[in-house]
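The protein record now logged underneath.
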Amino acid sequence: MSDFEQFVEFVQYTKRFRNVGVGPRRYLRDYSDPFSKYSVEEFHARYRFTPDVVKSVILPMLDSIRKPSKRGLPFPPEIMLLITLRYYATGSFQKMQKDVMNICQQSVSRIIVQVSNLIATKMKKYVKFPTDTEELNMVKQKFYEINHFPEVIGCVDCTQIKIRSPGGETSDVYKNRKGFYSINVQTVVGPNLEFFNLVARWPGSTPDSFIYNNSSIKQRLDTGELEGVILGDSDFAASNTLLTPFLSPNSIPQEQYNKSLYETRKLVEHCLGIWKGRFPCLQVGMCIKVETVVAVICACAALHNIAVSVGDVAPTNWEMAEIDTDVDFTTTNEHPNSEGFVARQLFVDRYFQNY
């Protein structure tokens, strides 16, 4: 019998003495085993993963959490993980009331912070670019098969994760151009709808181009550590390693370049829709501290890649989120003599002249 099963059995045993004046000390925590309570489909709908994946893949990430004992009845890692996954699947403490097993909200909040921080520290293990040349060439081939855009190793986009006002004199920097408070999260997505890179530390008002220009992914591309190009929209400045569409294409090759880029880059929007659909906490607005929001974002990115790795990419039992694809044209730069424009035109001349 596992520690978790022993714990559940012990709590169920003590419940029999709630209304009796003698016997073991009375505990009011009501633990029923969710792994046996729900069918696989119900469990997946509530926690966004199957029981097998939770037990065999995600739970080992919490090994550093103290093992339960009967003294004081600390929370088992299984319970802590399921409470956290349920929060990710709802984004609301109120909607979780039937799932927190009579644990007070203060304890639930502490559990979410602890588990989110722990999973977030493992993000770089799951969210990373392939480093092997053969693997990177396979990525390029998969992107090319979408709509014949060559040399692509990723698609970049930023997405706003809604938060409550953090308060204080600097709170306005978190208010984005849509008028709500948020974290502006930069993502780079691979051809299998996985995250290759994620940056979640900038307030909502930060321009996408600024985030990219101060990111490690730009440095790795510019130094040649990563060989290839990534595709972005016009919120980003074009360069020889980040390609964006022509705002006013004036030739058939430029038009074909734009069409191929648009079709290939749909992947990042699709990925973000799946990500936010799996974890609605990312779209409803989290009423928790900013530093915890960042941990939740990173944890959800790692969990998304785990889902992709086990073939659980886009389940049909929830709706994908709609992703805002508006471009802030006040930040675009389409000067024909700019370095980015020249690099983009050279790319067209090399790969799209046959159209």
Remarks:
- The chain is about 45% helix and 10% strand.
